[in-house]
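cron nightly-structures :: item 1 of 1
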Amino acid sequence: MAADHANDSASLREARRRFFEGGDAGAAPVLAETVTRSWHRCRLDGLVTDARPPGACYSESELRERHAGNRRLIEAALPELETIHRQIARTNSAVILADAEGVLLHRYGDPGFDRRAQRVALSPGACWLESERGTNAIGTALAEARAVSVHGPEHFLDCNSFLTCAAAPIRAPDGRTIGLFDVSGDQPTRQLHALGLVRMAALMVENRLLETEFDDAVYVHFHPRREFLGTLGEGIAAFGPDGALLAANASALGHLGTAAGGFNGLFDAELGNAVARASHGTTLLTTRSGLQVHARVSVRGERDQPGRTVVPGTGAAADTPALHHGDDAVAACEARALRVHARGIPVLVEGETGTGKEYLAHRIHHQGPRAGGPLVVVNCAAIPDGLIESELFGYAPGAFTGARREGARGRVHEADGGTLFLDEIGEMPQALQTRLLRVLQEQRVVPVGGGHEESVDFALIAATNRDLAQCVADGTFRADLYYRLNGLRVRLPPLRERADLE
């Protein structure tokens, strides 16, 4: 392996020497065509290999405006950004979200790599278009409109040659590129898995955006093999009430073979009939090309929003089954939480990812005295730092660039008369912890930008997969907010420790 790496590096350096001395890289099988095309573009842009690129192009306030303008992208992408970060932890790398103009919006990385990355401005606020930084995964992926990797000497600028990078564009339902994921690292060898990671993450975000794009749409999820429903390989198509195709993901277009037409022009059924047939599970449909597919069909009402769920109060009709199926420890946790919540005492639910924290919150709300009111779910980790204050507390008209003219109610206000569930509370920025504490103490809220102070009345449930007590000891979480949240602390066991695992 070491010999292969040495040979590839030598071939790359030789191809680079030939190109920059004579304009032709020659026969270099290790050099991708995307790289040679990029090198030619960089030369036409007047770049030179020993140039020093600029630092951050945008100030903190300008970056906040970009965050506001890319709000849907950020909310949909942050969960995948964090997932990739966990997968590449301790590999001397960083995962990055950039917008369609190559401006870095968010970066999560290993501290050791972050220090070196700062030297080339691989940080939020910097622009990494090819015209600014030469050949690099972010700029080249945008220029090529496809996923690319750029390793070491393939970077046009000498100062970036320590990087190995992979990036994949993220497309909106209408096909426009609206951003991209990038994994960059300080590695001696190319990270072969990084390109697959960013491709899969981009697909997940694209599907998430498609599924929340249209009001009152009929969504059809389909695949020739039933076991592929619910995976990244499934086709997703959105149809209007009249059967017109509104949008479809790449997998759906691959199966349907068209980007236009109505439902009954694409499948051998009427839309209403397909909805009825799939009302209790899946149904079989046949495309006009004769391909038989398994399909799930659902009708959407109001658009869901990442990081936010409002479940209207419907009393007993919204009953949620118990979280346990014979595990005495989980049953005891659930019983204590129900009793305490009924007395208006805050409940703090701790546990690893996947233990059922949000499910328990639904159970507590729908079994409690506030079941007739709304359950407002806020994922504190899915909302960007620059937006979370206005999301929680609302904002006055004209409070900031991009704000709606009429202002907006916050999620705390929406929970009035019901339950506010703050998921991933441990990820809340410290500046917001102070304001949340004041709202919890006074039960009154003032929107961002000023305005009329309003009383709110809600029960509180918070959840985290972090050790908040340790966060308090480390100084990253306010002690007084921790004690305010911790009316009853419930810890759900990991699934591997459940007595009712079967």
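cron nightly-structures :: done
The chain has three domains: 32-211, 218-299, 308-497.
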